[in-house]
Design brief:
The structure holds 2 protein chains of 2 kinds. Helix content of chain A is 71%, strand content 2%. Chain A is mainly α. The radius of gyration of chain A is 23 Å and the shape is globular. Chain A starts with a helix and ends in a 5-residue tail after the last helix. In chain A, 45% of the residues are buried. By secondary structure, chain B is an all-alpha fold. Mean pLDDT of chain B is 86; it is low at 1-9. Classes of the chains: A mainly alpha, B mainly alpha. At the A-B interface, helix 1, helix 4, helix 5, helix 6 and helix 7 of A face helix 1, helix 2, helix 4, helix 5 and helix 6 of B.
Chain lengths: 288, 288
């Protein structure tokens, strides 16, 4: 460690000008603006907690959005963790096929969510989509998918799962590689079966990775925007109106900056809380 | 994983287990390959015959019998997709150049210097990489419009420059660079800037590539921010262009598929060539 404060500041300053302006200031501003009301003319008045009060007590659209977001989180996060873990266990062996499969399942995370949403939107097209062609092929009734208020949210979850399972799989693979071989060798000597080893050794030792992936993934999914904007615009009948989209609509369609920043601030508080948990999880070292 | 224990485990898998494994692998392969193949095939087949192959399903659904570049030509010539691609390239390259310079310097200061306020600054780095970008889009919009740079390349480039994750990755890497080496150069009378750009950075190409890939993917795949920050067609970015085809009155499959393909080729190629660095970037985030 060098003790040259002047040099250190020269090195660190440019990055922190950017971070200060475009990361920290927005966070602070979000809370500031959420206490104001902006009229059509652009005049701003301080209204205290009024935006929040209105959201929490008499804004059914907001509550619908909260409900949808919670429901979506409960669907997507366990599914993603399970799928990512499953893929990692499947591909964490040295066989000729694993490289190909790892790449294949990871590939969608290199493609943008917008493109993934567009392609899946066509696959799920109720009339000409592949999904219904497949259902017809096996003799099942075609489904309305994104046009049904009971199926649309599940469809969004499936699309997001398809894109991100491979991404989180990489974290599990890194975690699996951190488990010492000796433990498995000892288990072999004791005559443990493959399944026993998975459930008694691998999964318990992956607890920390699992919690990290769950927490980090929850933060990302809380802010789902692209598939809602591209595929459903919050519909049908508000069934996919996730908070991020509601906040976007508030700011850029209804031009209600106070309400938009109040929703943003609520999201930020939740994300910051999640980040604190995440920080705890990442800082702690592995101990076997 | 190539320990003796694992080899023994693999040999112990029964024939039933192998059949089960093959089934699972087939399902995984289909789940990932079907959307990818369908996109490529549909983008390359004549627009008039698109719906024809969606139902019923045959092998022709996934392999075009007549290949044409007419769809791609159409989006570039008539729909201005080239402009969006060029914008995305400009924005990505500028963000990468600035981002690598600024974040590597900050990482160096955090790795090699002791100075007052370091703990707080590092905490800010951690917070900014754990709060996903989407969470601050709406307040960021307010900041950027106050700075008077909304609807410009600046609005698209500058917010992506300071990146907590990049700083973190650089810091991790620089900690491994021996301080004695820097000390020796210092004794020879080299300035810190010369030491950094002349000695440290040339040793750090692996992490530079990781960060380049990461920043490229981030900027190339962005939808939400470009959508609100640069609404005029002059600055339209590639993902916004893709999304626009969906929201157009009549979703035109040929345009959707071909723009999806054109938008995905650059990140997919980059990913396939630099996979190692992309994966290293993400797997270093949570652990060690």
């Amino acid at each position: 460690m060098f003790r040259d404060t002047k040099a250190a500041l020269v090195f660190i300053l440019p990055a922190f000008v950017f971070i200060g302006l475009f990361k920290i200031w927005p966070i602070v501003l979000s809370f500031g603006e959420s206490f104001t009301f902006t009229s059509i003319t652009g005049a701003k008045t301080f209204v205290g907690l009024e935006n929040y009060g209105y959201l929490f007590t008499e804004d059914p659209v907001f509550w619908g959005s909260v409900k949808t977001t919670v429901l979506y989180s409960l669907m997507i996060n366990p599914l993603t963790v399970a799928a990512a873990l499953g893929l990692a266990l499947l591909f964490n062996r040295k066989a000729r096929y694993t490289g190909f499969f790892r790449t294949l399942s990871f590939l969608p995370s290199a493609i943008s969510m917008s493109v993934v949403a567009v392609v899946w939107g066509i696959i799920l097209d109720p009339y000409y989509g592949l999904a219904n062609s497949m259902l017809r092929m096996v003799g099942l009734a075609p489904q309305p998918f994104l046009t049904s208020s009971t199926q649309a949210l599940m469809c969004l979850a499936a699309i997001s799962l398809w894109r991100s399972a491979g991404y989180w799989m990489m974290f599990f693979l890194a975690g699996l590689q951190g488990i010492p071989h000796e433990i498995y060798e000892a288990a072999d000597i004791d005559g443990a079966s493959g399944l026993q080893k998975t459930f008694r050794i691998t999964l318990p030792l992956l607890t920390r990775t699992t919690s990290f992936v769950l927490v980090a993934n929850t933060a990302f999914n809380f802010l789902t925007f692209a598939p809602v904007y591209i595929l459903t615009k919050g519909g049908p009948r508000g069934s996919t109106n996730l908070l991020m989209y509601e906040s976007f609509k508030s700011a850029f369609v209804n031009l209600d900056i106070g309400r938009a920043t109040a929703i943003s601030s609520i999201l930020l508080v939740i994300i910051l809380l999640i980040a604190v948990v995440e920080l705890r999880l990442t800082r702690a070292s592995f101990d076997y | 994983m190539n320990s003796a224990g694992h080899k023994r485990q693999n040999r112990g898998v029964s024939r039933l287990g192998t059949v089960f494994l093959l089934c699972v692998l087939t399902v995984v392969a289909l789940v990932y390959l079907i959307p990818l193949c369908w996109t490529v095939a549909s983008a390359l087949r004549p627009a008039s015959s698109l719906y024809e192959y969606a139902n019923p399903l045959t092998w022709r659904t996934f392999v075009p019998d007549r290949v044409t570049l007419a769809n791609l030509q159409n989006i570039f010539v008539n729909l201005g997709f080239g402009r969006a691609l060029a914008n995305s390239f400009i924005v990505a390259v500028a963000s990468i150049v600035l981002g690598v310079a600024v974040n590597s310097m900050a990482g160096f200061a955090l790795a090699k210097f002791q100075f007052p306020g370091k703990g707080l600054l590092f905490f800010m780095v951690l917070i900014t990489f754990m709060v996903p970008f989407e969470a601050i889009v709406i307040p960021l919009y307010l900041v950027v419009s106050r700075l008077g740079i909304i609807n410009s390349y600046y609005a698209l480039i500058l917010p992506a420059v300071g990146n907590g994750l990049a700083i973190f990755l650089f810091k991790q890497f620089f900690e491994e660079v021996p301080s004695e080496l820097l000390e020796a150069a210092r004794v020879d009378g080299a300035s810190w800037m010369r030491i950094f750009w002349g000695i440290v950075m040339p040793l750090s190409m692996p992490v530079v590539v990781s960060v380049v890939v990461m920043l490229f993917m981030f900027q190339w795949n962005a939808l939400f921010w470009p959508l609100v920050a640069a609404h005029s067609s002059q600055y339209q970015m590639v993902q916004v262009a893709v999304a626009t085809h969906v929201t157009a009155e009549e979703a035109h499959w040929a345009n959707l598929f071909s723009s999806a393909l054109a938008a995905s080729l650059p990140p997919m190629l980059l990913f396939l060539f630099l996979q190692k660095y992309y994966v290293r970037g993400i797997s270093n985030t949570g652990f060690k």
